[in-house]
Amino acid sequence: ETGVTQSPTHLIKTRGQQVTLRCSSQSGHNTVSWYQQALGQGPQFIFQYYREEENGRGNFPPRFSGLQFPNYSSELNVNALELDDSALYLCASSLRTGQETQYFGPGTRLLVL
Amino acid sequence: TQLLEQSPQFLSIQEGENLTVYCNSSSVFSSLQWYRQEPGEGPVLLVTVVTGGEVKKLKRLTFQFGDARKDSSLHITAAQPGDTGLYLCAGWGDMRFGAGTRLTVKP
Description:
Structural class of chain A: mainly beta
Shape of chain A: globular
Helix content of chain B: under 10%
Helix content of chain A: under 10%
Oligomer: heterodimer
Mean pLDDT of chain A: 93
Number of helices of chain B: 0
Radius of gyration of chain A: 13 Å
Strand content of chain B: over 45%
Order of helices and strands of chain B: EEEEEEEEEEE
Low-confidence stretches of chain A: none
Largest sheet of chain B: 6 strands, mixed
Low-confidence stretches of chain B: none
Number of strands of chain B: 11
Shape of chain B: globular
Strand content of chain A: over 45%
Radius of gyration of chain B: 13 Å
């Protein structure tokens, strides 16, 4: 059974640029959630995708967008990067929406200069 | 908005000591989860508590859910260096995490 993987592991961008982060969910899982974890903080929920549809969103602006593909992998896109977007971005997969266990990937560390 | 406050924010202890960390909210949760996160990794689920007053044990870790389902605690007995990490509580259902307690256990 393959765990949750994320790419890239690290990324450096400048203000105003756009970034795409990728997540491959654990085999058999159909739900992916994305979180932003700033230094010294807990993860903040960005949004969740279930069977290719957005299934909930946290308090993040529209420049944070996502996709889920038929194989249940997912992308997080952030436009017009700001310095405060520097953080660890985590994705987590689960079998379906609800109170099932989430399995987290190792994250992508984004630095915006 | 259901806010989760964790305390202490930082904790540094010697191997063999006992410790308790707390997760508090002014709101009622249907269930709470505890995770541990190590550097360079994502959080790993330790336990889910669902029933008010529930106590769950995982080896040297004891988790308790408050009777009113507004708070939870994690007690570690005879801490070991391998327990070092960021301990996070999360209110399940609304995907909300506390800021965590960063535990360091010195050999």
